[in-house]
TrEMBL record:
Pathway: Lipid metabolism; fatty acid biosynthesis. This is Beta-ketoacyl-ACP synthase. The lineage of its organism: Bacteria, Pseudomonadati, Pseudomonadota, Alphaproteobacteria, Hyphomicrobiales. The keyword Transferase applies. GO terms for biological process: fatty acid biosynthetic process. InterPro entries: Beta-ketoacyl_synthase, Ketoacyl_synth_AS, Ketoacyl_synth_C, Ketoacyl_synth_N, PKS_Beta-ketoAc_synthase_dom, Thiolase-like. It comes from the Bacteria. Signal peptide: none annotated.
Amino acid sequence: MSASDTDFLGRPVIAVTGLGIVSSLGKGVAANWDALIAGKSGIHTIDRFSTEGLRTTISGSVDFMGEMGRTSTGLSYAMAESAGSEAIRMAGLKDDDFGGPLFLAAPPVEMEWQHRLQLDHMDGATTEEAGYDRLLEIARKHPDRSIYNLTQCSRISELLADRLGTRGLPITLSTACASGASAIQLGVEAIRRGETERAITIGTDGSITQESLIRFSLLSALSTQNDAPEKASKPFSKDRDGFIMAEGAGALVLESYAAAKARGATIYGLILGCGERADDFHRTRSKPDGSPIIAAIKAGIEDAGLTPEGIDYINAHGTSTPENDRMEATGLAAVFGERLKETPISSNKSMIGHTLTAAGAIEAAFSILSLKEGVLPPTINHHHPDPAIELDVVPNTARRAEIGAVLSNSFGFGGQNACLVLGRAPRA
């Protein structure tokens, strides 16, 4: 292994050789990237189910995945399979014989209302007796185990491992909105430790249901600006009022730089560093001084062997909630100082919404494309800047820019904070 194959700590340099994306903007890398840099929105009025009585009636749901998209688990799998197979093919590998481990970020899974009602009176159970444990027992014993399988978080990774031909026990994790970035970190660490020369990391989330909308509404987390769905997600704007729940999947094929070069693979970008810190202040709110966010950002930059001056663009978590956007700006200002005003920072969520478990993976894929193409996606709907947040948010229109390193932030409920630093592929 040559010196150029290792980083400043002597660890293998991590190359990204394949990408896959599904979001409300469409299916596939090309369709998503073209729509994103054009400033198009995938947010729309929900027609998957009745929204009567709900405060929020809009989302970035993915409604084009066919029969598999009829349940949350089925949709999460279908999107992950689409993004994963696309990434493997882009990497020039067989999408049914990948030959490396799978690290999957997937949403927490439980029985949906339709299935609870379906099981309600099976085997003599009455409504009063059919508590959640009882329903699971009935589903487990029933000859048709399809409903029970939908309650297993590992089900998606098991199906993916079979479909994509991965090796070893597939890992499933769920760390709220940081999950996609955390999955990438696990893949990076496995390669750095020498356990594998390649890994596929996928984040997926197809969990928009009436129940999930109600839960986030009870947290006062969702936007209620239903009249113009495409204008509702407005990160860092003064009139932001909540995030837009969305669905999607992002996949990255990671390889050691040495292995990728040896097989003549196209390298689209690099994963330079990963940082994570926990915040135990509150279930949904950040610590007021922003110290865990600050520490996660610093850890990612330091792991990359860089300083804040080495970051050319920030792909923000940027959810469009009053609390998150303010705290993210506060954390970034503490790290970057006055230089933050000159560093472009934009939010993909202004167009695709908040894809929850998948967000970190999708946004990492978009960051790699920004590095490769030299284009910064915009933050759309930015017409009323928040005077308390002075940032260059690449407002409303994409911008050409030669960049060498991107910081991609993912801050989740439950105090999960993960930051990735991604770099441009070495020029041939």
